[in-house]
UniProtKB/TrEMBL annotation:
Protein name, as recorded: N-acetylglucosamine kinase-like BadF-type ATPase
PANTHER family, A to Z: N-ACETYL-D-GLUCOSAMINE KINASE
Organism expressing this protein natively: Amycolatopsis roodepoortensis
Entry superkingdom: Bacteria
Pfam families recorded: BcrAD_BadFG (PF01869)
Domain (ATPase BadF/BadG/BcrA/BcrD type): residue spans on this chain: 5-301
Length: 316
């Protein structure tokens, strides 16, 4: 009997599952992050190989009919030297062929069997993609923190700090969002009503610029929390984030297109304000939420091996 393997390799963790032709999950494996843009390629490749080995368990690697790896940072493999590192890892595990795809493709496939549609990702970064034949054929955004990532956790965190600086610059009373940002960046004393707020403006700028820019993403949860407390600044930030994200995903669609939109990432959680506002703006469109990227990867591998009638894995 043959099986297939699906892998979801992200920046912080990697998961793999082995699935048989009936859709039953035969084994699972886990490893650390494997984005070759944020981890050394040899390390990233070794972690994917480790997760695959775990999923195989006692299965014969030679009986692997197909393997799909959804990888954050997959574009790095366009460098032949980097691709060779990963190909060596597949060879060591004993499986071939391995198809590597962008992680939004497996996220899309986790939510729908529809071959065409759109995917909108908003986690630490953001990107929208047009899906045709289950392949991401074009993108909008996804340029990284310096050039874009509109509506992402990074963007939300940056706007939270900027909003706090505006409050301090005007000499206004800090609201829930500004207080949370100040406490996180400068410590509890920064929100003491008895403290001198005059130096806080420069101190916050200095603190934000002293860290890696992507660290601004840690302020994003404060925006959601402050929104729930009724902070107008947080309401305005989340509304702008939703509009930017919707603008990007609609730019990845044809006029009047009736295919689904799959939402991916913590920022787009149905429980969060940005996710709720995005869904409200996408009225009249079928909106789905990605469930588990590794299931999408395994199903894509099953389609490769067994055809369109391959059943979808239901748990990992």
């Amino acid at each position: 009997m043959t099986h297939v393997i699906g892998v979801d390799a992200g920046g912080t963790s990697t998961r793999a599952i082995a699935v048989d032709a009936s859709g039953a999950v035969l084994g699972t494996g886990r490893a650390g992050g494997a984005n070759p843009n944020s981890h050394p390629p040899h390390e990233a490749a070794a972690r994917i190989a480790s997760a695959i080995t775990g999923a195989l368990g006692g299965l014969d690697p030679a009986a692997t009919a197909a393997c799909v790896v959804g990888m954050a940072g997959v574009s790095k493999l366009s460098d032949p030297a980097i691709a060779e590192i990963f190909e060596a890892a597949w060879k060591d595990v004993g499986i071939s062929p391995v198809r590597t795809v962008p992680d939004p493709e497996v996220a899309y496939a986790s939510a729908t069997s529809a071959p065409d549609g759109s995917v909108l990702v908003a986690g630490t970064g953001s990107i929208a993609g047009r899906i045709r034949g289950r392949r991401m054929v074009s993108t909008v955004g996804g340029y990284g923190w310096l050039l874009g990532d509109e509506g992402s956790a990074y963007w939300l965190g940056r706007e939270a700090v900027r909003s706090t600086l505006d409050v301090l610059g005007r000499g206004s009373e800090p609201g829930p969002l500004a207080r949370a940002v100040l406490a996180e960046a400068l410590g509890p004393s920064a929100v003491d009503p008895a403290s001198d707020r005059a130096p806080l403006w420069r101190a916050l700028i200095t603190s934000a610029n002293a860290e890696a820019p992507i660290r601004l993403a840690r302020f994003a949860p404060f925006v959601s929390d402050a929104y729930r407390e009724g902070d107008p600044a947080a309401d305005e930030i989340t509304s702008r984030a939703a509009t930017l994200l919707v603008t990007n995903v609609m730019a990845a669609r044809d006029p009047g297109e009736d295919t689904p939109v799959v939402l991916v990432g913590g920022v787009l959680s149905p429980e969060g304000p940005v996710g709720a506002k995005v869904r409200a703006e996408l009225v009249g469109i079928e909106v789905l939420t990605s469930t588990d990227g590794v299931l999408g990867a395994a199903w894509l591998a099953a389609v490769d091996a067994y055809g369109e009638s391959a059943p979808r894995p239901v748990s990992s």
